[in-house]
Amino acid sequence: MEISKKIDPISDLFIFKAMNISGIGLKEEDFGEVREGKYVQVIAITYEPDKNGKKKAKNISLGYFGKAEALDEERKNKVIEFVLRWRYEKAFQNLEHYRSLLERVRPKETLF
Fold first, then answer.
1. Which among 25, 46, 88, 94 could bridge 30 via Cys, Cβ 3.0 to 4.6 Å?
2. Taking a C-beta distance cutoff of 8 angstroms, is the pair 92, 13 a contact?
């Protein structure tokens, strides 16, 4: 998907707060459905302070794949898989973060 052209080193991919796809549904009711007339992009989301110091969402395109209806099935599935795998890894990183915080307030042997 050539995302490494936009993010180098690729490990920086996890500095983003969220990731989404435009042009393809990811909700349960429309999962994998292309949105006619829309363009497919992988969008990374971060939060940066504006001139007043207030956090504001910033969208960064990590990949552009053209019109949704023109995207072949294999490529579409790779785009979906990439975003889902990113979300899974990000959730795992957050889980580890909270686990380490819990260990700081309660010794490991008494957790759950």
1. 25
2. no
| pLDDT score of 110 more than 90 | no
| CA count, 13 A, side-chain hemisphere, 112 | 3
pLDDT (mean) for 40-55: 90
Contact (Cβ atoms closer than 8 angstroms) between residue 3 and residue 26: no
Write the CB contacts of 71 (distance below 8 Å, at least 6 apart in sequence). Answer: 23, 34, 40, 65, 79
